[in-house]
Structure formats: C-alpha cells, structure tokens
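Sample entry (149 residues):
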Amino acid sequence: MELGPDWAEWGLVGLFVACFLAATVLPFSSELVLAACAAGPWSPFSLLLVASLGNWLGGMSSYGLGRLGDLEKISRWLRTDPAKAVRWQARLARYGHWSALLCWAPVIGDPIAIALGLGRSRLGPTALLMFVGKAARYAVVLWLVSGFR
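Predicted structure, serialized as tokens:
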C-alpha cells in the first residue's frame, strides 16, 4: 500500500489503523506512516503510544487467530507448508512466550504471533512481551526520524 498524504491528515486515528493493519497478515509499512505523523503536531509520546497500541492489537488478533484455529486450516489459508508451520511451532515451544518479543520483526512477526496462539502460549506474558517489542521498535523509529536528538 502506498503512503499518501491522507494518512498524516487522518492524524492519530490513521496512525492507529495503519499500525493495526501492519501487524496483521497484510503487507504494510506502518513505519512510513509514523514518520509522516512525526512531522505533525503530535507529541512523540502520543505517537509512540498510539502506534504501539495499534500494532499490539493487530498482533494480538494474529495470536487470537492462531489460538482459535488449527494448524492445517491456517496453513491452507496462509498458503504455507504445514511442515514449515510445525517447525515454527517447535522453535517457539522452546522459547515460549519470550518469542513474542520478536513479533515486531518484518516477515516473521505475524507467523510468530499465529504460532504462539497455536501453541497456546500464556496470554498475559505473551501480550506484555509483544507490546514491549513493538513499542521498542517504534521508539527506535521515532528516535531515527527525530534526527537522533
């Protein structure tokens, strides 16, 4: 999806929606939207909070999808090899809810969230660690956009 001027005009609501969508299986760059919003009138704390909450809720929806689904249906829906999904599940079982810290990562973040749900990772620690990882990523983006101040 191309970043148009409308995203910044939508303000914090647009930022929230963009960050939510970016944390689902849709390919989308919320960092560009955050960078555009950083030039606006909003405080860095507001931007960090809204972006982190939106992205976290999107990630938790992927976790919920995994929690409610089964491996074969999700593999078919996402068009992935079930054997690959089983390998991911085994890797995540080793590290448990700590894997949620990596849900911010491009490409692998969404499958990690889904696999954590499939593996029935504990909700509380998974949600907390997922939020910490996503907030840390947006804090770095804001720091980079602000010119290293």
